[in-house]
Amino acid sequence: MSPHSNDRPVTPLRRRMLEDMAVRGLREATQRDYIRFVQTFAAFLGRSPETATADDLRRFQVHQAQTGVQPPTINCSVSALRFLFTVTLDRPDLSRRLVLARYPRKLPEVLSVEEVGRLLQAAPGAKYRAALGTAYGAGLRVSEVATLKIDNIDSTRMLIRIEEGKGRKDRNAMLSPQLLELLRLWWKEGRQRGVMLPHGWLFPGRSRLQPVSTRRLNRAVHEAAEAAGITRRVSPHTLRHSFAPHLLEQNVDIRVIQVLLGHSKLDTTALYAKVATRTIRAVTSPIEQLKILMENENARE
Question: Which PROSITE patterns does the UniProt entry name for this protein (predicted)?
Fold first, then answer.
């Protein structure tokens, strides 16, 4: 759906903002979100955001906090309004008045290698076993899995080509022999069923011309987790979250993992070191050195 789609007439301000976002290459989903947040702000004001003052922005953010709007939503609205005031309205002085909400960063939920194996085994069919295996085996986001094409799989160089991932960045992901085997099993079945088109989607949806939806991949994970007896909350992103700590536990350099995940900042990847349980258990605490010193002292006495 285009961000222009709306029953109401497009105001000059909205049209200008849409043009500004399109020029800067913002995704349609981002454009829709930005427009929605600006509409929420306009509804709060009861007039056009063009007439907003610094006090209006302060009142709006106080209103969000008092009505229980969650920090991630507040921060998304800040991004939208900063774009509006900095780019479209050329009023950076107002943009600087917007405050990001701070909140504790939770550790990602991670499955054990054994749990991942059970989940993939319980996946509803070869297609979803291959799709979920790709999320885990290559550390891909669910949107990246859904939009893979057959030609993105390079079995000669053992790479998966990710086109326009997060931030519209291309990158190469790893293709392991075991994952390649899962993909080949699905490819053979898909060809037999007539759902795989030459140079088409690797995981087609109900129509061969459309990719599988991320919502359907989420449902497949939930079904597999329930069948595998995994009671924790699991999503396709849980498989991506599990990819990084499992590599860390194999002593893979964290900067390599950063590249594989497509993270722009090492800090984001470093978070996984906190959930790499085998790595944590393998570290020798300094108190062990203290114990050795104390034993040597006692022996000399």
Answer: CB (PS51900), TYR_RECOMBINASE (PS51898)
The whole-number pLDDT of residue 7 equals: 52
User: Residue 10's pLDDT is what?
Assistant: 80
User: In whole angstroms, what is the distance from residue 39 CA to residue 36 CA?
Assistant: 5
Q: Is 262 helix (H, G, I), strand (E, B) or coil?
A: coil
pLDDT, residue 113, reads: 87
Query: Which amino acid is residue 37, in one-letter code?
Result: F
Contact call for residues 272 and 241 (beta carbons, < 8 A): yes
Low-confidence spans in the chain with pLDDT less than 50: 1-2, 5-6, 280, 282-285
Residue 291 is among the residues annotated as catalytic for this protein? no
SS3 state at 173: strand
Domain ranges of the chain: 12-95, 113-237
Tell me if residue 237 is catalytic.
Answer: yes
CA 210 to CA 196: how far, in whole Å? 11
Catalytic residue among 4, 97, 216, 237: 237
- The catalytic position among 14, 129, 246, 263 is 263
222 counts as catalytic:
no
Six-digit token string for 186: 């699905």
Rounded Cα distance, 246 and 272, in Å? 9
Token pair, residue 153, equals 């799989």
Q: Which of 240, 246, 255, 278 is catalytic?
A: 240
Cα-only R_g, the chain: 24
Q: Which is the catalytic residue, given 161, 166, 171, 222? A: 166
- Note if 63 is an active site residue: no
Q: What is the pTM of this model?
A: 0.65
> 113-237: what CATH class?
mainly alpha
- Report pLDDT for 1: 39
Bridge partner list, 201: 149
| 4 is an active site residue | no
Catalytic site residue from 272, 274, 278, 291: 272
Indicate if 166 belongs to the active site: yes
Is the CB of residue 276 less than 8 Å from the CB of residue 249? yes
